[in-house]
Amino acid sequence: MQIRPTLVPLGLALLSLGCAAATGRPRAPSAETAPSPQPSSEAGETSTFPAAPELPAPRAQVRAPRRNFPWLGAFLKDQGGVRVFRVLRGSPAARAGLAEDDIIVSAERRPLGRSRDLIELLQERPVHAELALEVERRGARRIISVPLEPAPVHEDIARLELVGFEAPEISGVVTFQGDVSSLRELAGRVVLLEFWASYCGACRLLAPELEKWHVEYSGRGLSIVGVTVDPLKLGAEVARKLRMTYSLASDPAERVTNRYLAREIPMLVLIDRKGEVRDVAIGPSPERMRQLEHDLRELIREST
Hints:
The protein is built from eight helices and 16 strands. The protein has helices spanning 9-16, 92-96, 115-124, 154-162, 201-217, 232-242, 255-259, 286-301; strands at 2-3, 70-71, 74-78, 82-87, 103-107, 110-111, 130-137, 140-147, 149-150, 174-177, 190-196, 222-228, 247-250, 264-265, 267-271, 277-282.
């Protein structure tokens, strides 16, 4: 398992707390939100604070032991302040009612000028502490209390966000092997998305196993699609050396990669014939690969 090296140190720090810094703005369904707290007498608050949208709760459970540092569960960027551009399902941020486009003005009464200020404050907090955030939403402000919790491993974060929901579209990738450029083209088939890269040793170890599945199951309704952030020429060269013959595409702008939270690779996303994500696996663990193969065989047997 490998973390993509394109992340700068700030991004790594944010990711370790369930956040990430980015220059783009990937859009994805937000997490379930709790009702907004009632207004208090704090300065700067207003009773006209807009409610966060009602969105579905996660449909997966955390499997692995949690880690011993606090998790917020929001992606942030420095744009007109510390702005939220994505909230993850099942996260403390989601349950507290944070929403896309919120601006976090202060935390624990400390003004925030950039995302790093919030990261440094989070690093000081115990894993089960409450974090008081002053949030601006469409011109109105309110204090929102976020009960922090220990961070899940990244595979569980991705499972909370993706499993049980329609798979995000992959249109926008540039195909360099095969002819698949969107999930719509694969409607009615079981799909296994692989996020990989040329620099990833674990991805190279996994390639022969995926190639075996491609040969054995493609005629029975399985499509494997590998997505890499590598340039086309490099991706094609590595695929040739590793004898990868399934469909491959480059995601140079990393829009699809970010949409799927593929920050640790190799990452595999299993999608059923109806287009719903059924599981996520990170790393080439033999046990996880056996379970994944069992599950994809079961999905292949299901009728459309």
